[in-house]
Amino acid sequence: MRKNPRTPEELAEELLGRKLTELDPEDQHVLDRIASGTLVGPDADELAALHASHGDRLADKVAAIGGSWGFIVAFAVVLFVWMLLNSSVLQAMGIKPFDAYPYIFLNLMLSMLAAIQAPVIMMSQNRQADKDRITARHDYEVNLRTQLEIIRLHRRFDHLFEYLETRQAAEDGEEC
């Protein structure tokens, strides 16, 4: 057994007791990275930012704004003002309301907003799900690397203890 296996195949045999071809692709990837001495790659947010298009960034902003209390409060104020204007304020000024009760134009605008906003928010949720998958893969890689390094260190300590025991036994034999 070599002290420091250099290839992924040797690492798989030594640390996992299996052939590299028997391992999952993710495990093989981790062993490749350990053998090459590279660190873990960029995290999910960095990868998402690298591959994000203008539409993706816009979808994230729309979802962030549309899913906030500020948006809900502002939208409620706009609806209240719309209904107030079209119910009594304009009539009191002698102007015919442009969207009188039952507010058909307001209904149309709300329907159009919902028809546009829902798919955009779903796009953002899909991107978040992709980020979550990348994060899970990244976490798995970090955990596996950590376990493999602990196994390597444990084996090195075992070899060191064996060496010290044989050396101590040899010194005890010389003293007799």
Please trace the helix and strand order, writing H or E for each element.
HHHHHH
Structural class: mainly alpha
Helix proportion: over 70%
Number of helices: 6
Computed CA radius of gyration, to the nearest angstrom: 32 Å
What is the secondary structure topology, with strand pairs?
Blueprint: H1 8-16, H2 25-36, H3 44-51, H4 54-66, H5 69-92, H6 104-175
Helix pairs in contact: 1-2, 2-6, 3-6, 4-6
Could you explain the architecture of this structure?
It is a single chain. The chain has helices spanning 8-16, 25-36, 44-51, 54-66, 69-92, 104-175. The mean pLDDT is 86. By secondary structure, the protein is mostly helical.
